[in-house]
Amino acid sequence: MFFSSSLFKKDIEPRCAYCARGHAVNEREVACKKHGITDPASHCRSFVYDPRKREPPRPVPLKTTHFTADDFLI
């Protein structure tokens, strides 16, 4: 359920980086069908969310330093 809650939220902040009308040229530029080359952080009224272009946040690493072998015995 992690992916569905973070990728498909209704209150997504619009960005050209994950708009269906834009295609990444490089890390700092997006080619928009309506506005040409734009900044990935910008957006316009024509924003259409494409969840396949958005990368989910990295999960928090598990801290295993405080576990011992006895913690895993039944």
Can you walk me through this structure?
With 74 residues, the chain is mainly beta. The chain has one domain. The protein is built from 1 helix and 3 strands, in the order αβββ. It has one helix spanning 2-7; strands at residues 22-26, 29-32, 36-38. A 3-stranded antiparallel sheet has the order 1-2-3, with no helix packed on it. The chain is elongated. It starts with a helix and ends in a 36-residue tail after the last strand.
Radius of gyration: 19 Å
Measured between the Cα atoms of the first and last residue, the distance is 29 Å
Low-pLDDT parts are none
Strand order of the largest sheet: 1-2-3
Question: N-to-C SSE series?
Answer: HEEE
Query: What do the pLDDT scores average to?
Result: 84
Category by helix and strand content: mainly beta
Largest sheet: 3 strands, antiparallel
Strand share of the residues? 15-25%
How many structural domains can be distinguished in the coordinates? 1
Note the total helix count.
Answer: 1
| Count of β-strands | 3
- Rough shape? elongated
Helix percent reads under 10%
Q: Topology, pairings included?
A:
Elements: H1 2-7, E1 22-26, E2 29-32, E3 36-38
Antiparallel strand pairs: 1-2, 2-3
Note the main attributes of this structure.
1 helix, 74 residues, three-stranded antiparallel beta sheet, 3 strands, mainly beta, elongated
In short:
The protein has one domain (2-72).
